[in-house]
Every structure is written in structure tokens, then in C-alpha cells.
Amino acid sequence: MLLRRLPKKFIRLSQLKTHNYFYLRQSLKKRFRCRSRVFNRLYGAPQRKAVVLRVVLMTPKKPNSAIRHVARVSIYKTGRRALGRIPGIGSSPTKFNRVLCRGGRANDLPTVRLTLIRGVYDFSGLYNKKRRRSVYGAPRPESIITHRRRRYRHLSI
Known about the structure:
It is a single chain. The chain has helices at 2-5, 19-29, 37-42, 133-136, and strands spanning 47-58, 68-75, 81-85, 98-103, 112-117. It is of the alpha+beta class and 157 residues long. The protein has 2 domains: 1-30, no CATH class; 37-133, CATH 2.40.50.140. Strands 1-2-3-5-4 form a 5-stranded mixed barrel. A hairpin with an 8-residue loop joins strand 4 and strand 5. GO terms for molecular function: structural constituent of ribosome. Keywords: Mitochondrion, Ribonucleoprotein, Ribosomal protein.
């Protein structure tokens, strides 16, 4: 009984002999298990490199109706397979293209818990975008003037 009251770090696991102590020891040895499914897919990394196995068209859940592009990908490091959402309209990746995946599920598509990143590896960005360019991997148009500080505006570049 005294052992149960002590903090867990003071219990010496080598001295536990009886059945109760055996089960206590098992519970102490339990490893931390993260329950997030995205964490398990990406193994703790913010992004992972993957290969497209096929591109699928899916329809969303009940209140919404559309045709969404989804890619079945195999993650390089782990070999795990998952579904990833393809953002933007047009030019989706083809089979065996290399893509970069990040976490971010599609709320109305079941089992889709990853999002592909445009403009990296073989997955091209969208070129007609002027707003939210970082999301779609679009380059900066030449018509957009970069911000210059007020005191340096008179200098020509």
C-alpha cells in the first residue's frame, strides 16, 4: 500500500514482484500515444514528401454538392497511404508526380486529412492568382510594385 502512495518516479520497477505490482508496472511503462490521425500520417513533421498514386473525384457529404479532386498519395518515408485534397481549380497532378503534403482536412470529405501544397516539386502553381498567392503557389506578377519605405520613394530603382 505504501508503494501506491509514493510518486511514480520513486517506485523501483525491478523490485515489483506480486501481481498487483506487475500490472502497476505495465501501466507505468505505457508510452505516450498521440491520438491525432494527421500526426500519425505525417509522423510529427509539418510537411512530408509523397508520390501520387491516383487522382480521384469525390462528392462531399450531405448539405454540400460538388465534385472535388482528391489524390491518393503514398508518403515517402513511411510508405503509408492517405488521401490528400487538391486545392484550386485546374491542373491537378498526374500519377507518380512528387508532391508535398501538409495537415489540413477537408471538412465535407470523409477520410481526407491531408492537403497538397502547390508550387513545390512536380505540382505546379496557379498563374492567374493575384490574391492568396502563397496558398496556390503563384509567382508575383510584375505589375505588383513591392512596398518601398516613404523616405526612399524618391530614389528610382
